[in-house]
Design brief:
With 126 residues, the chain is mainly β. It is 0% helix and 49% strand. The strands form 2 sheets. Strands 2, 4, 5, 6, 9, 10 and 11 form a 7-stranded mixed β-sheet that branches. Strands 1-3-8-7 form a 4-stranded antiparallel β-sheet, with no helix packed on it. The termini are far apart.
């Protein structure tokens, strides 16, 4: 049974940082790109960042470029999202997901993902 477990969310003041982790179990995902999405109350789920299977290619939403960094450790079957300079607009539930292939070509599309975690809440206070 495949499981994705996000952790690292919490409450932080504007300008602060958080590091999210997503540990996968049930099978290895070293051949799959991985992504992070987020969903704020009353809004649709939106793409945040993605990383190719080898970690050599990354993709970011314009709203987080220069502030967020995605990385992965295939030996640990884990993907990370380092979030710096957080602002209240970043408040959302953050989800990690497994892409159906190894590239980030279509990684901003939720339909490209086959497995999803349960999410972790990130709240940024002003």
């Amino acid at each position: 049974q495949v499981q994705l477990a996000e952790s690292g969310g919490g409450l932080v003041q504007a300008g602060g940082s958080l590091r999210l982790s997503c540990a996968a179990s049930g099978r290895t995902f070293s051949r799959n790109a991985m992504g992070w999405f987020r969903q704020a109350p009353g809004k649709e789920r939106e793409f945040v960042a993605a990383i190719s299977r080898g970690g050599g290619t990354t993709k970011y939403a314009d709203s987080v470029k220069g502030r967020f960094t995605i990385s992965r450790d295939n030996a640990k079957n884990t993907v990370y999202l380092q979030m710096n300079s957080l602002n209240p607009e970043d408040t959302a539930v953050y989800y990690c997901a497994v892409d159906r292939d190894g590239t980030t070509t279509y990684a901003d599309r939720p339909s490209e993902y086959v497995y999803w975690g349960q999410g972790t809440q990130v709240t940024v206070s002003s």
